[in-house]
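Next up, sample data.

:::
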Amino acid sequence: MSLFSLMCTSTITRTWSALYTALIKKYIRLIGSSILASLSITAAGGLDQPVQLVSGKVAGTTLDSGVQSFLGIPFAAAPTGDLRWKPPEPPIPWSGVRIVDRKGPNCLQSRGRSLMSEDCLYLDVWTKAETTSDKLPVMVWIHGGGWAMKATYDGDVFASHGVILVAVNYRMGAFGWMAHPALSAESPYGISGNYGILDHIAALEWVQENIESFGGDKNNVTIFGESAGGGSVYALLATPRSGGLFHKAIAQSTWINTTNVSNLKSHNGFMQSAEKRGVAAIEKHFAGTDQSETDISEVMRSLSGKEVLELDHQVALIVDGWLFEQAPIDTFKEGKQHRVPVISGYNDGEGLGYSRRNIPDSVMQQRERRLRQLGDLGDSLAELYIAKNKSDVRDVEVDYTSDDMFVRASREIAQAAVRSGQDSYLYVFGRNANQPEERAPHYAEVKYVFNKLKSDALPEDQDLAKSMIGYWTTFARTGSPNHDGLVPWPKYDLKSQNYQFLDTSISQGSRDRRTRLDAMDSYVRSRYATKRPPGVSWPIENLTE
């Protein structure tokens, strides 16, 4: 089939899909407007509804807890058609009252969810404000999932603790991270990619314009996220384009490493340029068709959502000279990130799930793997991640994967805050309720942060969850996690490197993994400085989060 035929077939499918979606949306709007256009509802112990936003009026629901939820509010226009692979546009205003009692579609992803769409730039708000003048602290949650999938909980318990919780969608996979010379040529800045981060910025701009209508304080906004969401917090701290949009930051298990940060147009020592990776993905998809006389950006936008999901494309932050004026690792080293108080931390067994099926059989095999992964500049670092005897191989492998994928960048955020004169708090999470004798794996802390444990959870786990949501919300309120009734949490500094160990028995420690992380920092900086790849992709495993 010719490329023209492929484009026509895809375009027809997309057109009918768009018409169907538009008709459904129009029907829902008409029904909602006819019921509520003339109503003003006074909620018992809550905000009067409908709530007036910049784009129109919305009406949500009240939960049994007294928390009001407003679900599926558009914070940007649908990034479809000509807006695919472009910065987000403002939401389209609506008339009447929009019923926001259910979540909007999830952004397209390979892991199936009940409702997904490319039209997905929606957010959810949970609040227990009594009036619009309450000025409650605001927390904006950015979910994890490798910038390719969505992993999250609802925010109603946060609202019960006196903050407003805003949870945001963002474009993922190739939708959110594709760079290509044809797309860069369309940009006034000559750039492409990073659309997921631009979606975060658009959501934070929406918060500035609208959160007071929900009783929030636009001058007290805390961003927080886990894994890829922590990576997004890292990115928002590093880019000057988010200046003034938030005032505190919490980064949980920050997923930033040498496999997900690239340059737009050049190899950075670990990854090929983002544009070349984009070209390769598109050429592979259209292999065997003639693209010589076509507008490649038009061809790319003619792809169906399913076809975009199937592109062989690796997500990564893109250092482009505009969103990121320099590599974020340099921004943090120089203390030039946004100067706000931070909480940063990680789980003590982050790498458990990623290493489980790929443990070396011997010390020798581990040595060979490490040297192959790290290359000519990594000899001294490799020695720190090679077991002394076979019985330690598994633990060392988990440590290496943990530090490489999540821990190094988590500590980097904490140290950068100190360098810029801001209060910094580091934690290590150690609770594994399913296997108490084992370390805490990736994502284990999130259900404690959101206080979403099962009803039959042990009392000590319930206490830990109450402490963690207490720390998080107190920090959002005051810039310090410390509060009466909570175990005191010492500030982080570069000398003692104090941290809070969060387990069923909360304690303090210092200098966790210091020697290894110092060496890993030095190695990463050296590789970036030389721009010389280690000979193979690093790490070997095709890790997705």
